Amino acid sequence: MSEDREGRDAALAAFDRSGDAMDLAVLVTERGPRAEVVRSVEDPVVGELSFGFRDVRIDLSLHARGPSRTLAGTVRGDFGFALLEAHRPSGRREDVASIEETGEFALQGLHRGPIRLTLRRDAEPPLTTEWFTL
Amino acid sequence: MGARLPDQSHEDPETVLSSGPRHEPPPPLATTGLDLDDAELVRLARLGSREAWCGIVDRHLPMVNAVARSYRLSAPDREDVVQTVWLALNQHLPRLREPHHLRAWLKRVTRDKCLRQRARDARQYPADPEAFAHVEGDAPDPEAEYLRKERDRALRRAVDRLRDPGEREEALRFLEPDSTPPPRDRRAASNGRRRMVRRLRTTLEDEI
């Protein structure tokens, strides 16, 4: 395959209109590692991201352990019970975490690659983040 | 990451829960997608036309790939970034305010995502210390520097033992060409240098 056509299958597979009506939380801030990543730190933070939509804010810390990634953070907003799901481009739901009363959550053992999170709340439409890369 | 084809065999909760409008299927494109401008392709893709999406991908994929390659990311990271760009376009398709500026939008998003990926990975690459064994740095190797000084000291001692002032002068001219005046007779100096080298070698061999 020529370099110009590289990734064409994945690009074509990205087409999906089923989420057009979902609310979209856009990336507000992204920061790199706070300090030099050293081997002695088991799960170093390799990035921090914040997504926002109206009064909802999702703050994420991206932790790395070998090829595996963990997303930990908090969801702030006015809602009761909520779940946070990790979705892959195929539509597959890789993991789901419940949001604690403090708003904290953790999604562990994630593979690298494109991902988006969907927040499901009581009596509210689902809210999804922009795609980002682990 | 390789290309991931959509898995149609499962029930996607988003599809089930989505309360979005159901569009009528878009009309088939009368001509190939590449004959239409970007704004028209975006409009048809918003309506669900895969053909229009295909036209967008085929028109702009080479540019997106070229921009991504220019950031020299690892191949898996580059593939992830490029895929994320197309996922982002799909996600933002209903929200694009200036679809006729699609190319500029794609270029900006690709650069942005490549920069973020590069910044994140800049501190993550594990390195095998052995890989640096053959890298030549600007600083002198301490061991080589020590051996050079030891050799110079032995050579200086051997020069000091030369009894002939002419040979000693020739040795100093050889060791410190900048601080010793040039010889008046070059042929004699050449013969004297050969004698001096032989004598120095003998002295150094005796020292060892």
Enumerate how many helices of chain A there are, as a single number: 1
| CATH level 3 topology of the largest domain in chain B | Rna Polymerase Sigma Factor, Chain: A
| Secondary structure: helix percent of chain A | under 10%
What would you call the shape of chain A?
globular
Q: Largest interface here, residues on each chain?
A: A-B, 51 and 58 residues
Helical region count of chain B?
A: 8
Q: N- to C-terminal separation of chain B?
A: 63 Å
Q: How many strands, what sense, and barrel or not for the largest sheet of chain A?
A: 10 strands, mixed
Query: What is the subunit arrangement here?
Result: heterodimer
Q: Which class do the helix and strand fractions of chain B yield? A: mainly alpha
CATH class placement of chain A: Mainly Beta
What is the secondary structure topology, with strand pairs?
The complex is a heterodimer of chains A (134) and B (208).
Chain A: H1 8-13, E1 23-31, E2 45-53, E3 56-65, E4 68-76, E5 82-87, E6 93-98, E7 104-110, E8 114-121, E9 127-129, E10 132-133
Parallel strand pairs in A: 1-9
Antiparallel strand pairs in A: 1-2, 2-3, 3-4, 4-7, 5-6, 5-8, 8-9, 8-10
Chain B: H1 13-17, H2 38-46, H3 50-69, H4 75-92, H5 102-121, H6 142-160, H7 165-175, H8 186-207
Helix pairs in contact in B: 2-3, 3-4, 3-5, 4-5, 7-8
GO molecular function, one term (chain B): sigma factor activity
Biased composition (Basic and acidic residues) (chain B): 166-176
Region (Disordered) (chain B): 1-34, 166-196
Explain the overall architecture.
The complex is a heterodimer of chains A (134) and B (208). Chain A is mainly beta. Chain A has one domain: Sandwich (Immunoglobulin-like), CATH 2.60.40. Chain A contains one helix and ten strands. The longest helix of chain A is centred in the first third of the chain and has 6 residues, at 8-13. Chain A starts with 7 loop residues before the first helix and ends with a strand. Chain B is mostly helical and 208 residues long. Chain B has two domains: 24-121, Rna Polymerase Sigma Factor, Chain: A (Orthogonal Bundle), CATH 1.10.1740; 142-207. Helix content of chain B is 60%, strand content 0%. Chain B is built from eight helices and no strands. Chain B has helices at residues 13-17, 38-46, 50-69, 75-92, 102-121, 142-160, 165-175, 186-207. Chain B is rod-shaped. Residues 1-22 of chain B have low confidence and may be disordered. Chains A and B meet through helix 1, strand 8 and strand 10 of A and helix 1, helix 3, helix 4 and helix 5 of B.
